[in-house]
Amino acid sequence: MKGRFGSRQRIAHALDAIEEIEQYLENQLLSDFLDNSMMRFACIKQLEIVGEACNHVHSVTMDEFQMSSGVRLSAYETY
């Protein structure tokens, strides 16, 4: 499964998951979120997708992103 998707597809999966979270939380109060276990677990699952997708982005892609954007990816730097 590791080699099944390229870095672009993995980044797209991460962005899709982030958009899902944004849709879940749109017009929701923090109290609504905290009271709704289904919403919390749905958000957690999407965060897992983001993490898994980003963990498998090729290191060259990460290096290129950091150089072009000036953003340091601290989680990436720990590996």
Structural notes for this entry:
The protein has 79 residues and is mostly helical. The chain has one domain (7-77). 75% of the residues lie in helices and 0% in strands.
Total number of domains: 1
Q: What is the chain-wise order of helices and strands?
A: HHHHH
Span between N and C termini? 21 Å
Q: Spans with pLDDT under 50 lasting ≥5 residues?
A: none
Q: Number of helix segments?
A: 5
Helix content: over 70%
Structural class assignment? mainly alpha
Shape: elongated
Largest sheet: none
Summarize model confidence as the mean pLDDT: 81
GO molecular function, one term: hydrolase activity
Keywords: Hydrolase, Nuclease, Toxin-antitoxin system
GO cellular component, one term: toxin-antitoxin complex
Task: Report a brief summary of the structure.
InterPro entries: HepT-like. The protein is mainly alpha-helical.
Topology:
Layout: H1 7-25, H2 30-35, H3 37-55, H4 59-69, H5 74-77
Helix pairs in contact: 1-3
Keywords: Hydrolase, Nuclease, Toxin-antitoxin system
GO cellular component, one term: toxin-antitoxin complex
Pfam family, one: HepT-like
Keywords:
elongated, 79 residues, mainly alpha
